[in-house]
Every structure is written in structure tokens, then in C-alpha cells.
Amino acid sequence: MATADDRERRTATQPGPGVPAGTDLQSLAVHLRRMNGEINRLVHGFAADHGLHATDVQALAAILDADEPMTPGRLREHLGLSSGAVTACVDRLERAGHIRRVRESADRRVVHLYYAADARAAARTYFRPLAQAAQAAHARFTDEELAVVTRFVAAMNEELALLRFHGS
């Protein structure tokens, strides 16, 4: 005999009547974990090939994706690391030729971090299979479907950022 807890669990993870199979929360979570695992595999491979830590690759992505020049302080907040750990990360990335530090001309205390052009080309080459996979997947959807997917991913990123700021 099913208990109320069993029914609640089933309702939370299985699609209800009229909901297409594979769109329930459990199925979505499985697919997101699998995608995250595949991307992490690529990131760890890049890190190993370049003598970096996986966190260093996260730092590179943050520098690349930043809307404005990245600073060590903003990078620390983004990665959730201590000042010392970010300094060590930035030092490793600079020594390896992946980034360059540039002092702001108006205020010499401000340091901006930029992805080095040669390193960007190396990363682009390494991650080309990921870009090709994304392009192939992209081609399987209409613009309207992709707009929904993009909104969902953006909403997930917003929700996850809230967790980071709330210490969860």
C-alpha cells in the first residue's frame, strides 16, 4: 500500500498526465548531472594537459566570460576562494602564460586580469569538440525551443548564484 510520502515522491519526480516523458524534474536532473560530468571531464583533461588545477580552468572561464575586466577580488568572490588561494591561482595562470595582469592607468592599485591571446587560441583548439557538440545539438532545435532552453539555463544560473551568496 502506497503511503502519502510515496505518492509525494512519485509526483515530484514523475510527469503527470499530459506531461511529455523526460520533462519531469528527476529526468532533467539526471541529464544536467551527465552534462556536467562530461564538461568536467573535458575541463580536467585541459587542466592536466596544461599543468593546471581544475579551479584554474574555472578562473580562466570566469575571466573569459566576464562582462567587464576581471579583478582578483571579483575572481575571489566568483570562485569562493580565499585571497591567498586566488593569488596562487592567478600566479599559476600568469606563469603558464594563460593570463596577464594589467594595472589600471587611473588607479595603479587596481589590477585587471585578461586572458592571453595565445592561451585563448590553445583553449579554443582544445575545447573545439565541445563547441562542435553544442553546435550539433543546437541544430536539432528550433529558435523558439532554444529560447526556452536559454531562459531555463539562465534561470538555473541565477538560482545557483543565490545559493553561493547564501552560503549553501
Inertia-based shape: globular
Number of H- or I-type helical stretches:
8
Which segments are poorly predicted (pLDDT under 50) over 5 or more consecutive residues?
6-13
- Beta percentage is 5-15%
Sheet with most strands: strand arrangement: 1-2
Tell me the series of helices and strands, N- to C-terminal: HHHHHEEHHH
> What is the overall pLDDT average?
86
Total beta strands:
2
Describe what you observe in this structure.
By secondary structure, the chain is mainly alpha-helical. Helices cover 67% and strands 6% of the residues. It has eight helices and two strands; from the N terminus they run αααααββααα. The longest helix has 25 residues, at 25-49. It is globular and about 55 Å long. The two termini are 37 Å apart. The relative contact order is 0.07.
Q: How are the secondary structure elements laid out?
A:
Layout: H1 4-13, H2 25-49, H3 54-65, H4 72-79, H5 83-95, E1 99-103, E2 111-115, H6 117-126, H7 128-138, H8 143-165
List keywords for this structure.
single chain; 6% strand; 8 helices; 67% helix; globular; mainly alpha; 168 residues; two-stranded antiparallel ribbon
Structure described in brief:
The chain is mainly alpha-helical and 168 residues long. It is built from eight helices and two strands.
